[in-house]
Structure formats: structure tokens, C-alpha cells
Amino acid sequence: MQTVEHLRELFAYNDWANRRIIVALKNNASEKALRILAHSLITEKEYYERLYGKDSSGFDFWPGLSIDECGGLARESAEAFEKLLRRFEDEGLDIRTRYRTSEGVPCENSYRELLTHVLFHSSTHRGNIILKLREEGFEPPKIDYIIYLRETKYV
To answer: Which CATH superfamily is domain 3-152 in?
Structure first.
């Protein structure tokens, strides 16, 4: 499998897992978990914009969003990344882009590096959300990649 095909699949999984978390948080009022979700989703959006050179100086990565706002943001990000990756071949992933961090630090990375970061960052924070739900006595959703494959690819 080519890298871009694999990234397309991983971003589809990312959307699936985000949607499962959103449903879980609609049913289980966890303010801490919702705050982590909002952070994760706004970060996805900001990194998408960084692909196009956005200056993130002063950006707040910890907004207070409602579960409905998170749902809208998740849909928006999933669509944006899906459209972006549909246009790419593997060579395009080596395109480099310059942007500024929230601290104003100039940086340069390839699309491949930034897209990979988005996936790892989101996965890490979904794990944090699962932990918070368990700590608060809720049964978290199953969001493992292998479950995604079993439910979407091998049925």
C-alpha cells in the first residue's frame, strides 16, 4: 500500500473514532473529556490550516466548545482532510510548508510529517478521553483501529 493510500485509510479511521467519542460524550456528561476533545479537534483544524502556511501565533488550542460545536468541527476536519488526500499522490506528501507555532516560532515540515502528527496527536488525546470516562465511571466506546477494520472492512 502506498503512503497516501494508507494516510487516507488512517484519516477515515480518525473520523470514525472521533465520531464514536462524540456519541459517548453526548451520553456521558464529562466536562474534562469534552475539553480534551475540543482541544484535539481544534488542533486538527489548525494543522490543516498550517499545511497552507497559516501563522498560528497566539492561537488558543484549548477552547471551551459544546459537544455540538465539536461535532461540527469533527465533520469539517474530516471533510477537509479527505478532500486534501484525494488530490494527492505519494510525491505530493513531500511538499514542505512553512508556518508559525502558537508561540510564534517559525517552522517548516512536509505534508507527510504534519499529517502524521495530526493522527498521532488525535489518537493520544482520544486515549486521554477514554481514561477520563473510565475515571468518572462511564463505559468508554471501543475505538481501536482493529475494531474499525473489523467493522468497516471485514464485514
So the answer is: dinb family like domain (1.20.120.450)
What ranges do the domains of the chain cover? 3-152
Which H or E run contains 14?
helix 3-27
Of 24, 23, 18, 20, the C-alpha closest to 39 is 18
pLDDT tens digits, the chain, 155 residues: what are they?
588 999 999 999 999 999 999 999 998 778 999 999 999 999 999 999 999 988 999 999 999 999 999 999 999 999 999 999 998 887 889 999 999 999 999 999 999 999 999 999 999 999 999 999 999 999 999 999 999 999 998 76
**CA gap 105, 122 in Å, rounded:** 22
Q: Are 76 and 70 in contact (CB under 8 A)?
A: no
